[in-house]
Amino acid sequence: MSIEQQIRLEKKRDGLQQAWNIQHEKVKQIRQRLVIENGTTNQFQLEQELKQEKDKLENLEAELNQIEAALQLALQTQISENKVKISPPKPQPTNGEAPPFITGAPITQPRYFFGREKELKRLFNLLKRHPLQNAAIIGKKRTGKTSLLHYLKNITTTPAEQLRPEQKSDWLPHPENYCWIFVDLQDARMQSREGLLKYILESLKMQVPTPCDLDSFMNLVSDNLHSPTVILLDEIGVGLQRCRELDDGFWESLRSLATNHTGGNLAFVLSTPESPIELAHNTGHSSPFFNIFGYTAYLEALTEREARELIASSPIPFTDEDVKWILTESRCWPLLLQILCGERLFNLEEGENDDNWRQEGLRQIKSFTHLLDS
Fold this sequence. Notes:
Radius of gyration: 22 Å
Distance between the termini: 37 Å
Number of domains: 3
CATH topology of the largest domain: Rossmann fold
Strand content: 5-15%
Number of strands: 5
Order of helices and strands: HHHEHEHHEHHEHEHHHH
Strand order of the largest sheet: 2-3-4-1-5
Helix content: 40-55%
CATH superfamily of the largest domain: P-loop containing nucleotide triphosphate hydrolases
Structural class: alpha/beta
CATH class of the largest domain: Alpha Beta
């Protein structure tokens, strides 16, 4: 994908995000009216209206997910190309020079991830003892759910020279024993039963059988999984809405595998905009798989201390006045912090001394004002 195509896609994504925000608010208002409506006729009409508006919301979300998947694929392609050119890959610089702030893609390298200390303590506490326990990460769109999944996967095995000074990485007693499998259910290859099962087996370095069906998968994993393994399911809602092959029988088998057949060595961590049980109900699923998530991490804004740490990573320090303004306008949401810090850094690098960057920053975060809703 060319730079021009990527820019066009990002603009289209931002426009769709605004439309999604408006439609989401409309659905929420209809639901509120439905709760207080007593008349049978009016209630029926509201239910029909709710169904129509939810369909529109799902269509917008599907289109938005497709664009985000295309942008993510472009990013992964760039990373792969860089790996071909540079072998072995060089560690990230440790001389204090920070990269530009990241706004358009999930954060995959731990040194650029900030905050979520409370959630990380709880999540790793569930995963460092047997039996491993399951968890759900819940948050609005663009709250950093995918970035948090990547951080869980990478932080414990990233070399110290590729981390920030004082960045905690000793979350697990023996991190080298763990296998982490990141599954992006926006990826079309993960949306068929066979494709997903093959991917998991290949990640576990197990021989893929022919045919690769659910029975053979269950037998292989039950017999051969002897080390702690965490499957990270990103965009689980997409899998439930679009993937007919990932039916209740499929999810029930995964539940059985984790609870009865792997000696406590298998756990799932999923990301979703709502609770797993509500998500399953709203998409017509009833599998008990969605009842096994004993801990739920709700992603809210960062603490002020965490937000200040992110801001302080700028290679050019910001004034106290700028820091205060960024904290106020972002309300400490990670994405909004990244956007506003990026605008201020660009302004400083260009040697500009005016406050035009603030106006541009507010324009850039307008697409994500849903984060500021109470």
